[in-house]
Every structure is written in structure tokens, then in C-alpha cells.
Amino acid sequence: MVSNLTLIVAIPLIIGLVNLCLPRVLQKLLTIAGLAYLLYLVYLIYKGGGEAAHLYGSVIFAVDKLSLFVLIFIQVLSFIILIFALKSIVPSDERFFFPLFSFTVSFCNGAVITTNSIIFLVFWGLSGVVLYLFGLIPRTDAASQSAKKTFVLVGGSDVFLILGLILVWFLNPKAGWGLWNTQIGLEGELAYIAFFSILIPAFAKAGGFPLHTWVPEFAKDAPIESVALLPAALDKLLGIYLLARLMFNLFQVTLTMHLLVITLGALTVIFAVMMAMIQHNGRRLLGYHAVSQVGYMIMGVGTGNPIALLGGLFHMVNHTMYKAGLFLTLGSVEKKTGTAELDDIGGLGKQMPLTFIAAVVCAFAISGIPPLNGFYSKWLVYQGTLELIQSVGRGAQIWLLICLMLAVFGSALTLASFMKFLHSIYLGRRQEKWAGIKEASPNQYLATLGLALLCLIFGLWAQPLPLAKFITPILADFGLNPAAYLGSYQPIPVLLLFGVIFILGLLVFVAIKKVRYDAIYLGGMEALEKFRIAGTDFYNEIKDMKPLRWFYRNAERKHFDVYDLGGQGAGWFTKLFQAVHRGILSEYNLWIVLGTLVIIGVIYWLV
Predict the structure, then answer these.
(1) Which pTM does this prediction carry?
(2) Domain boundaries defined on the chain
(3) Which end of the chain is more exposed for a tag (fewer CB within 10 A), N or C?
């Protein structure tokens, strides 16, 4: 009998292959039916039907609490995003989109449930390939360049993953090619090389600093549905999944490494949110925020503290909900207006009220406004970091406090930039050319409202649902005691308090109801449409502030972009090799001998 774990990988893979030959209508029907069945399968696995799958006597697929948690939300998010995509994809792109969609689900499922490093490498690499192929769908020069950058950063990091997993096998051969529970001590050069070699692809996939620059580029040029599926959702799940395995299963991490990972998380938060604030393109703004929120996940997982770990994993799944929702609401607007440039939109709240409501809920959730889910997960990360601060030395305490302040400040800047986002699209003065725009199609607003509803549910019932059912049990698998104290936050009273304030304000408005509407004049003349305030220039002045001017100028010159820096370095090495390789046979022999000696020396030093 074929196990459910095998089916959850094989079914979407088969559907993707079959869809290559089917007409578009059958593609959609088969894909939605397949995803619905995967939801049923994952329910069976959750109820205890996740028997391990074997190949030649070795376990290849299995689930523990972490892999089951990620597996569940891969299916849930994929299904919701697929509902949106059923009537949103450009007809000429549907032929390739739906097969790639099924392949993506299959490869992500396989990467999460395999216990074998070699099989994990295969699925991990294939998930990067479909990411690249999604980027090529628009068939434009800009999309091709973004896809190329994505492939180089994400695919190139796989080289480090191969090296890291080989070194893990070398350091602990008794575990074979097992991916779980090797618990290697961080002692010696090989252990540190293996640790960083696995850390790099985890950061590249999730979009952590400094390997994040592919995310806003991909978000700007790829189909919005694929952006919601991968960099906003599934890639975050895979990247943080690998980071959690690295920190708690593969290695016994030292305090120094904890501090390093936390620092990189804090830098991810603040650098990306600073770039998001000045964006005029909605896709790029959301892309930078997709990076910024990864920083909280990295900090939570990186601390090693149980409460912060709960917050990091909770924030991981929270982010997939509200970030996918934000991208899809923007997609609904873009499909009506034909643009994602914030300067060109505005005033669509009345014409697209359901999309507006979903966008507001998701924007408040990502900004950490209670009682939505983003507030609670960030709060857990902060609380766990404060607990870690109490147990370390004075120097580490100061360092961690700086990281914590950067994270809190980043949350405030997130709210500020989403005020700009909401105003620019849904509020303000509407241009006359958008007067005929109506609400998005039912499949689109049902998907976005569904994601917004999940943000509310996971905020109001965080402890009894996601934490108790899915996340707290993961700590036992990691050898950590479940947190006995998660604070006294009560979301229901907070929601009621907000409701009372809203009702009081509404009553005051109805009681007074003295509103006068006057014409707007500019210089004694009626204000023309071209003089409207779009809202995109709210934070442009920060680029010229003395403390930040240097950062923004270097960011615009791509001095922090690993991809461009690597290209410049490769060009320099190319010129160097062209200079030393002059076509003389004796010189070629000399370089071969010298290169061999260098390789022998490196191997001798490592061993």
C-alpha cells in the first residue's frame, strides 16, 4: 500500500505532468481537484496517517512535528492562492502556470518530509528551478533579468548546501545521510564551514540579509500569483524550516552563533523596511517587506529561547498569510488598472470595498496591530529575546538590546509605510480614468478575504489553535521545554475595546452629522486632477537626512547587492585570467601544478 506521504509528493507531480498536455479548462479542474485531495491527505497525516515511506529498506519520507506543521500550511496556502489564480492569469500564461504550480507544491512537500539529505537536495533544487521558470513567464527583458538574478542567488547557494551536507555526513558518518537529529558540536573548522554552508541557502531561500536582493526584483516582474505563492509564502516556509533544522537538529549551536544569527535577523528587519518606505512601485514595496519580516523569524529561531522560537515559527506562518494576502489584493488592483505604480492609482476603496477590507486587515497584521496575528508573534520574539538577554554577559546584553530596538523600530516603520501603501491605492483622490472600475471577481476577493480572516483567527485564538495544536509540540522534538508562561495578552477584550471605541465614534458622528463639502481651489482656481496628492512622497525626505543619506545612496548604487558585487568580482577575475593565460603551453602547465599544490594544501589543512 502506498503511504500518504508518498502520495502527497506524487499526486501533484503527476498532475503537473498531465497538465502539460491538457487544455486550459481541464488544467484548472485537475489542479483544484488535486489540491483539494492534498488537503484531505494532510488531514489524514495530521490524525496519525503519516506512516514512513521506505526505499530499499531505508526511510525516505517521514514527519515529525516541525515537518507536519510546515506541510499543513503548504497545502492550505497553495489552495487559497490557487483559488485566486483560477480567474486571474493572463490566458497566454495559463498553459505554463498551472503545471508549474503543481510541480511547486510537489517539490516543496518533498523537501519538507524527506529525512535523507540527498533526496532533500533534489527537491530543494527543483523548487529553485520552478521559481526561475515562474520568473520567465512574462517573457520580457526585465522579467528575464530578475529570473536570472533569482536563479544565481537561490540556485548558486545550493552549491553551499551540497558542501554543507557532505561535511555533515563526514563529521557524523554514523547518521548516514540523515537530515534530522545529528547534533554535531561546533568545534573545528569543518564544523563551522558546514554550519555556514547550510546557513547560506536557508537565508537565500527565505530572503535574509545579505542574500535578499532577488526578492523585490522577482516581486516586481513575475506574475503576482507566483510571487504570492513562492517568495511570499512557500519559500519562507522552506527557508525557515531549514534554518530551524540547522539550529536545533544538525548542530549544537554556541552563543556566538546565536548572536550572529540574531544580528543578521535585526539587520534584515531594518535594512529592508528602510528600503520599502521609499518605494513608489507597490510590488517592490511589498517585496522589501517580505524581506523585512523574515528578520523577525530569523531572530526568533536564532535565539534558541523557547518563547522566541515559538514566536519565530508562528511569525513564519503568519507572514505567509498576510503577505500573500497583500500581494493578491495588489494583484486585484493591478488587473483592473494595469499598473502597480502607486503614483498612478488612488481612491479605489469605494469601488473595491472587499479588496480594501482584506488589504487593511493584512496591512494591520504585518504592522503588528492587535488583536491580529502579527502582533502576537512579534511580541513572543521580543519576549524571548528579553529572556535571553537576562542569561548572557554584559557585552552580549548590550548587543542584543540594540538588535531588539532595531526590530521594534522596524515594526513602527512597517506601519508607517503601509499607511502610505493604503492611502496611495485605496484612499485619496481618484483619477477619472478609474471611474468605471468595479470590485474584483468573486474568486479573487474570496481568496484575499479568506487570508484576512485567517489573520484575524490566528490573532484572536493564537494560543488554543496554532500554538497549542501545531507549534508548542515542536519544542519537545527539539529537546526544549514548552514555555510555561506566554504572557497575559487577551485578544478578545482588546477587540471588544476597539469595537466600543469605534461604536462611540460612530454615535458621535451620527449625533452631530454636520459635514460640509467645499470645492478645492489651488491658487484661486479649481484644483486640477494633475495636482492631486498621491501619497507616495510621504517619506522621500528621509533619503536626504544626514544619518541616512549614505545608506540610501549606496543602496541605490547596489553596493549592498551580493549579486552585483559578485558580478563585479567575476569581471575582475575574468580580466586577471585573461591576462595570465596567454596561450603558452609552459605557462598552462605551471598553473596546473600550482593549482594542484593549492588544493593539496587546503585538503591537508582541513583534515
Answers:
(1) 0.92
(2) 133-479, 562-606
(3) N
